[in-house]
């Protein structure tokens, strides 16, 4: 018996990538009378199972391992009375679509009423929808925080708070929310709306400079990067570090300029443009005259002027390069580098 966690997020990933399961709908599952009442397996279609413990009136269904393995009108999901296994469950829009004794849960399947258990979709939703009665929701959104129930989560902008459960592959659970993948930043800062077969789910966004929770890793996914459970994706490519932009601010030494009035640092700021694009400099007596990242260098003939020290092109203004002059790396017009 496969655990629903085995393919929980992989199904989500395939859905987002426009792929489908390799497993076709089996004849046995297609023939099963999914959702009907029963007392034993013999009351259901060939190959189907009758679930009784925790299922009012019994429930005809069949075990499944992916979103394409269930017949029309049903989806592959974990049911509250047996959250460790995925079964074909009747899809719904409201309680009216379900048999007596069943309710339409937050992922849109007919589920036994729950108290303290999770209604979790193995097709990628992983929603623990129990709101609880003894937990005070946080006052601000906490997408990505650990959780056991949705009551411990707060969603941004009035979205429905959800908890992606540990039973379905999210260590210690993780706070999420139902979101619109087509919406602009619906999940707020530090999160992204990931499309799944049952709608968008907010997931923590990350960069090479941020740290995901223990047991989660930062993986490139689509146009961004998300904090996903370790080993969930067969190949996790971490995002590249964000280039550091340390270019001089307007008026600083080696900033671009056209006129002396644009330069503000040093005892006698000037815009030097004799051999190419203008850059700010100043006569100087020592490094202190040259401001942040500035150095006072001898240009010969007893004259000293301010230069900007650098280690990379991103330390210099656009149109200038970081080059070595007398053993020191400074920002200059490329035509002056030798």
Q: TL;DR of this structure?
A:
This protein has 338 residues and is mostly beta strands. It has two helices and 20 strands. The strands form eight sheets. A five-stranded antiparallel β-sheet has the order 7-8-9-11-10, with no helix packed on it.
Secondary-structure blueprint of this entry?
Elements: H1 8-17, H2 27-31, E1 49-51, E2 59-61, E3 74-79, E4 82-90, E5 103-104, E6 110-111, E7 127-128, E8 161-164, E9 174-179, E10 191-194, E11 200-204, E12 216-221, E13 224-229, E14 256-257, E15 268-272, E16 278-283, E17 294-300, E18 303-308, E19 320-325, E20 328-333
Antiparallel strand pairs: 1-2, 3-4, 5-6, 7-8, 8-9, 9-11, 10-11, 12-13, 14-16, 15-16, 17-18, 19-20
Explain what this protein looks like in three dimensions.
- The chain has 338 residues and is mainly beta.
- The chain folds into two domains: 1-239, no CATH class; 256-336, no CATH class.
- It has helices at residues 8-17, 27-31; strands at residues 49-51, 59-61, 74-79, 82-90, 103-104, 110-111, 127-128, 161-164, 174-179, 191-194, 200-204, 216-221, 224-229, 256-257, 268-272, 278-283, 294-300, 303-308, 320-325, 328-333.
- A hairpin with a 5-residue loop joins β5 and β6.
Task: State which percent range the strand residues make up.
Answer: 25-35%
Give Rg in angstroms.
30 Å
Task: Note poorly predicted spans.
Answer: 1-27, 115-125, 129-133
Shape: rod-shaped
Can you count the beta strands? 20
Structural class: mainly beta
Instruction: Output mean pLDDT.
Output: 77
Ends distance = 71 Å
- Element order, helices and strands? HHEEEEEEEEEEEEEEEEEEEE
| Main sheet: strand order | 7-8-9-11-10
